[in-house]
C-alpha cells in the first residue's frame, strides 16, 4: 500500500500511536507522582476519582456510542440535543459530588481532603460541555484528529501534574493535571472539530437513540461492579493508605501485562472476523495458536515479575511502596488472566457469541459478591486481591469452555 494510504487520516497507525503515547504518558505521570507523594496521597486521590467513575457509570447515557453506531448522522438540531443532554448530565454529577463531599470524606477516612473531591467534581462538568463533534469525527474515522487531541490532552495532564507535584502541591497535583488535560481537550473539540452544535438546552429529537444506549448503560453498570467494587471495599474499610498500595500494585501490573493485551485485542477482533468469513477451520486454528502463545508468554512473564517484584518496586517507586509488593505478586496473576480474557473476548465477538462474554461477566460478579466478604474478613486487603483472582478465573474458564466447545 502507498504511504498516503497507510498514514491517511483514517489509518490504523494513528490509533496505535495514540494508544502508545497516551498510555506511556499516563504511566510516567502515575509512577513519578506515586514515587513523590507516597501511598496515602495516591489513595486519597483514588477515592476522589472513584467517586467520579461511579457517578459517571451510573448515569451513562450511551449517546456517544449511539451517535457513532447509528445508520444516519445526527442533524444539526439532534447534535444540539446531544450536547444539552451531556452538558446537563455533567453539571448534575459535578453538583452531586460537591454536595456529597463532606459525607464522603467521613465515610472514606479522608479527613482534611474535602478539596480533592471538590476539584474532582470539576471533571464531569468539563467532559459534559465538550462538543459532540468529537463523536462525529469518530464516526467518520478521523483517527488522525482524534490522536492529536488525545495525545495533546495526555501530555498536558502529565506535564502539569508533574510540575505541581515537584512544586509541593501534594495530592492535588494529580487532579490539577487531569483538569488541565480535560480543559484542553474540551477546548479542542470546539476549535478543531466540526460540525459545531447549537448551544441551547433543547432535548427533543434523540429518542431514537434510547434503544441502543440503554444497553450501553447496562454494560456500564456491570463494568462498574467488576472494576470498582473491590476499590470501594478497600477504601471504605481500610482507608487511603491501603487503597494507595492496592491501586498502585494493580496499576503497575496492568501496565506491564493487561494494557498490551487490550491493544492487541483491537487487532485480533477484526483479524478473527476476517478469517471466519473466509475459512472457518483456518480461523479456529489461528485462534488456538494465539491462545497458546498468550498462555505460554504470560506464564513466563508472571513468573519473572513475581520474582523481580521487590527490586522493581524499590527501583521504580522507592522504599515507601515496598508494602505493596505482596499485592503486586497477586495482581500480575490477575492481569495475566485478564490478558487471556482479552483474546477470548475478541474470538467470541468475531464468532458472533458476545452473550458468552456477558454471561462470563455475570459469573465474575457473582463470584466476587460471594468471596470478597469472606476473604476480606480472613486476609484483609490481600484476601480481596485473591477474590479478584477467583472472579477473573471463573470468567476466563467459562469463556474458554465455550470457545473450545464451539471451535
From TrEMBL:
Keyword Transmembrane helix in record: yes
Principal location: membrane
Membrane topology: Multi-pass membrane protein
Domain of life, per lineage: Bacteria
Keywords: Cell membrane, Membrane, Transmembrane, Transmembrane helix
Location in or out of the cell: Cell membrane
Bilayer-spanning residue ranges: 12-35, 41-58, 79-101, 113-137, 158-180, 290-308, 328-348, 360-378, 384-401
PANTHER family in the cross-refs: LIPOPOLYSACCHARIDE BIOSYNTHESIS PROTEIN WZXC, PST FAMILY PREDICTED COLANIC ACID TRANSPORTER
Family to which the UniProt record says this protein belongs: Belongs to the polysaccharide synthase family.
Protein name in UniProt: PST family polysaccharide export protein
Taxonomic source organism: Caballeronia grimmiae
Lineage: Bacteria, Pseudomonadati, Pseudomonadota, Betaproteobacteria, Burkholderiales
Amino acid at each position: 500500500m502507498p504511504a498516503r494510504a497507510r498514514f491517511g487520516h483514517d489509518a490504523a497507525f494513528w490509533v496505535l500511536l495514540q494508544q502508545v503515547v497516551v498510555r506511556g504518558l499516563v504511566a510516567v505521570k502515575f509512577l513519578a507522582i506515586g514515587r513523590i507523594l507516597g501511598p496515602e496521597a495516591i489513595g486519597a486521590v483514588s477515592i476522589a476519582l472513584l467517586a467520579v467513575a461511579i457517578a459517571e457509570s451510573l448515569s451513562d447515557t450511551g449517546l456517544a456510542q449511539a451517535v457513532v453506531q447509528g445508520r444516519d448522522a445526527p442533524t444539526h438540531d439532534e447534535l444540539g440535543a446531544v450536547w444539552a443532554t451531556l452538558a446537563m448530565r455533567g453539571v448534575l454529577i459535578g453538583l452531586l459530588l460537591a454536595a456529597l463531599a463532606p459525607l464522603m470524606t467521613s465515610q472514606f477516612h479522608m479527613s482534611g481532603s474535602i478539596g480533592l473531591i471538590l476539584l474532582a467534581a470539576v471533571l464531569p462538568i468539563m467532559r459534559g460541555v465538550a462538543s459532540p463533534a468529537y463523536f462525529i469525527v469518530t464516526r467518520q474515522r478521523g483517527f488522525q484528529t482524534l490522536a492529536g487531541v488525545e495525545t495533546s490532552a495526555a501530555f498536558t495532564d502529565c506535564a502539569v501534574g508533574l510540575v505541581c507535584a515537584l512544586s509541593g502541591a501534594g495530592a492535588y497535583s494529580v487532579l490539577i493535571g487531569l483538569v488541565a488535560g480535560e480543559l484542553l481537550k474540551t477546548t479542542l473539540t470546539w476549535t478543531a472539530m466540526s460540525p459545531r452544535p447549537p448551544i441551547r438546552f433543547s432535548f427533543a429529537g434523540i429518542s431514537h437513540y434510547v434503544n441502543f444506549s440503554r444497553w450501553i448503560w447496562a454494560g456500564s453498570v456491570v463494568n462498574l461492579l467488576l472494576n470498582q467494587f473491590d476499590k470501594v471495599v478497600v477504601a471504605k474499610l481500610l482507608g487511603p493508605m491501603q487503597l494507595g498500595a492496592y491501586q498502585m500494585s494493580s496499576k503497575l501490573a496492568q501496565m506491564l501485562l493487561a494494557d498490551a493485551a487490550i491493544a492487541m485485542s483491537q487487532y485480533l477482533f477484526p483479524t478473527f472476523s476476517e478469517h471466519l468469513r473466509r475459512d472457518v477451520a483456518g480461523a479456529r486454528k489461528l485462534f488456538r495458536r494465539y491462545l497458546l502463545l498468550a498462555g505460554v508468554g504470560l506464564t513466563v512473564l508472571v513468573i519473572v515479575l513475581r520474582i523481580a517484584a521487590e527490586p522493581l518496586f524499590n527501583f521504580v517507586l522507592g522504599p515507601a511502596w515496598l508494602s505493596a509488593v505482596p499485592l503486586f505478586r497477586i495482581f500480575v496473576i490477575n492481569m495475566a488472566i485478564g490478558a487471556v480474557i482479552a483474546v477470548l473476548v475478541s474470538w467470541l465477538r468475531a464468532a458472533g457469541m458476545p452473550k458468552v462474554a456477558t454471561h462470563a461477566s455475570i459469573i465474575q460478579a457473582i463470584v466476587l459478591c460471594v468471596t470478597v466478604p469472606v476473604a476480606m474478613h480472613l486476609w484483609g486487603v490481600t484476601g480481596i486481591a485473591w477474590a479478584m483472582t477467583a472472579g477473573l478465573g471463573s470468567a476466563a474458564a467459562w469463556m474458554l469452555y465455550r470457545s473450545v466447545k464451539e471451535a
